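Q: For a teaching handout, I want to show students what a protein-ligand complex looks like in token form. Below are the inputs, and the small molecule is zinc ion. Please produce the holo structure.
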Amino acid sequence: MFVFGPGLTPGISTLIVNILDILFPKHCVGCGRLGRYFCPGCISAIQTINAPICPACENLAIDGATHPGCRTRYCLDGLTSFFRYDGVVRKAIKGIKYRLIFDLAVEFISLIPDVSFSRRTTLLSLKGQSSVLVPIPLHPSRLRERGFNQAEVLGKAITDKLNIPLRTDILLRVKRTIPQVEMKSKDARLKNMDGVFAVNQDDDSLGPVVLVDDVFTTGATMRAAANTLKRIGAPFVWGITIAR
Ligand SMILES: [Zn+2]
Ligand SMILES: [Zn+2]
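A: Here is the structure, written as tokens, with zinc ion included.
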């Protein structure tokens, strides 16, 4: 596993990257072609999401904002997802989940056109001192097994794009859950997420929160995180996932 943090001087890290490129050449995560993590052919096959949905009912919604009729006291205020969870996108997300390759995450995030960010008026309005970007945390035991949190890796890659600071100390995962995909019913998934998150901030200084995760599938994780943050006083919680 190789990680290049900003701590290395540019010269040394470039040198190391060059050496590693020779020792471990990059292959396209989609088709295996040598050179980059995303080859032009696989990039052109990526489907971007142009029709945002309400994160509560999952029907179409303007800008991804939760429908007024779907709103509940502690709900997510909206959701932005960029790509269909399919093909090369699915492979890249799985790649990031099981191997720590920060430059794969950076290359992946760079595929999101800037216009996709600037078109999201809600995200734009969140730029500012009090908003924070919060990756969905892993349970500490899972973090130990895996060594890193893929949502945090993606969050690091988008914090500059959004100009919202990344905070990994606010939201904690205090209960280890069964993977959502193994849960059959919606009720079981809801119960599974009971008491999963806690907030490490007791004052009322919590501003708007942008939650980041790799993929929105059942939405149960993100809804539970929003619920916890709002109970503690977050005025607004918006979700971002790379894929859906
Ligand atoms: Zn390819
Ligand atoms: Zn709705």
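A: Two things your students might notice: Residues 1-7 have pLDDT under 50 and may be disordered. The beta strands are 78-83, 132-135, 171-173, 197-199, 209-215, 237-243.
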